[in-house]
Amino acid sequence: MVVEFADSAKLAVEVNRRRNFAIISHPDAGKTTLTEKLLLYGGAIHEAGSVRARRDQRQATSDWMELEKQRGISITSTVLQFEYRDCQINLLDTPGHQDFSEDTYRTLAAADNAVMLIDAAKGLEPQTRKLFEVCRLRKLPIFTFANKLDRPSQEPLNLLDEIEKELKLATYPVNWPIGTGDRFKGVFDRRTRKVHLFQRSRHGSKMASETTLDLDAPELLELVEPDVYQTFRDELELIEEVGSELDLEAVLSGELTPVFFGSAMTNFGVQLFLDAFLDYAAKPGPRTARTGSVDPTHEHFSGFVFKLQANMDPKHRDRVAFVRVCSGKFEKDMVVTHARSGKSLRLARPQKLFAQDRESVEEAYAGDVIGLNNPGAFSIGDTIYIGPKIEYEGIPCFSPELFAYLRNPNPSKFKQFQKGISELREEGAVQIMYSTDEAKRDPILAAVGQLQFEVVQFRLQSEYGVESRVELLPYSVARWVTAGWDELAKVGRLFNAMTVKDMWDRPVLLFKNEWNCQQVEGDHPSLQLQSIAPLT
Ligand code: G4P
């Protein structure tokens, strides 16, 4: 009994010290730079530049996937883990740039918090908005970091306004900038009511040294130009009128975002952000499963697969299943049950992932991510567990934006072609749909990023030995008709839309643009169109 109590107390301690998050941003907002600086302050690296260097080095040396080399980009998503202030922080990487794909959305299913990184000059950008919508569906707490304050940027008040109006998300500035661009002097931290003045360090490769002053310290007037100081005080007065308390409950339910200003490149505000984030961020919490809610301190291990990665290692043409641990303690060599098949599996080679390195993991707790060598057993959304049955709700299919017929020019390879398509779909590399016209039997690839098409073609060729041709379709919006086929038949022929079916024979409408989609939505509300597929 004593042993059991000690175990459950340790479990609670481990869960409480975990913080897990993903960064949502548009390319070039500074995700790589901020990641690097968080690692620098978190003590995981000692000199910034190494993440980028590793990335570049990987591009130079990796031969595991020709495509990666050809395109000069990284397809591998990783989980970065570091300890800071007694907390174990898990940063889930969300592939961006050209490697934006459904994996980016799925990673958010495994995250407990999101950091919304915005370029303070550009404000909200398309990829950020899309990812934000996924966070909103999950009611994830969102922490905003307005970056690049060292460059001319929008008025901070305008940025808040944009977030509030466009995302319908309340804001609470945790710090406030003193000047922007060339005259950016630092930030005022509303938590401690101290002004932090920063010195520029070259590209911020080492931690920045900083001076901390009281708000009313006379030196401040000497160090900051009078007009910059005055604007800062006026703005501060304005934001403090609204109220000085941060409503943490609203943060945790995703209704209010704490906002931080800074400059990742020069390290301004990064540590303040990290410290506040650790205090406010959601710890791993209970998760909804089909079998009921599961507490992270539940005595038995459980987790779900949110991503499958093929061919990470050139020496073994393997697949890695990334599992988000949701409850209990994970141990090496554990025998778990695979909920979908009911089969037992021994998890013999678990891996923790830091960039491209693989390190064996001995134990893991809720909030952690482990990489399992996948002998083909796993699909996206699968649950593994110990003890009484647990089955998590799965991960929905997100609205694809690119559609193309995939042609097989070589009929003698029909079987391999079908096998490849079906396996790649199961793995979650791409969504597959079919025309309702029996004469058009070629599969329609449906993706959120262009790279997904290239990956499918590349892998069909290299793993299944089949050539393929992609023929783009002129659609960019998909909506599932949740009212079903009968309702769709009732509304009759729809112009400007193509009717297709997904892998579960459910009706989906493809539109050329949002405008056409909104028109059909407005004219036929009975169709109950949805941008995210209902779970199967
Ligand atoms: P990403 O991963 O979101 O795509 O962005 P990344 O960190 O690669 O940053 C994109 C560019 O923005 C980089 O410049 C980077 O140095 C710059 N940047 C990031 N944070 C800041 C900041 O706080 N202030 C300023 N002024 N610039 C910032 P680059 O020219 O593309 O690369 P590099 O020459 O710096 O390596």
List the ligand species.
guanosine-5',3'-tetraphosphate
Tell me the fraction of residues in β-strands, as a range.
25-35%
Number of helices: 15
Strand order in the largest sheet: 27-24-26-25-29-30-28-31
> What is the molecular shape?
globular
Give the helix proportion (percent range).
Answer: 25-40%
- Please report the total strand number as a whole number: 31
Structural category is: alpha+beta
Keywords: Cytoplasm, GTP-binding, Nucleotide-binding, Protein biosynthesis
Binding site for GTP: 25-32, 93-97, 147-150
Subcellular location: Cytoplasm
Protein name: Peptide chain release factor 3
Structure description:
There is one protein chain. Helix 12 (414-427) crosses helix 13 (450-464). Strand 7 (175-178) and strand 8 form a beta hairpin. Mean pLDDT is 85; it is low at 56-77 and 353-358. An eight-stranded antiparallel sheet has the order 27-24-26-25-29-30-28-31. A seven-stranded mixed sheet has the order 2-3-1-4-5-11-6, sandwiched between helices. The chain has a six-stranded antiparallel sheet with strand order 18-17-23-14-15-22. The chain is of the alpha+beta class. The protein starts with a helix and ends in a 6-residue tail after the last strand. Guanosine-5',3'-tetraphosphate (G4P) is lined by residues 25, 27-33, 147-148, 150-151, 263-265.
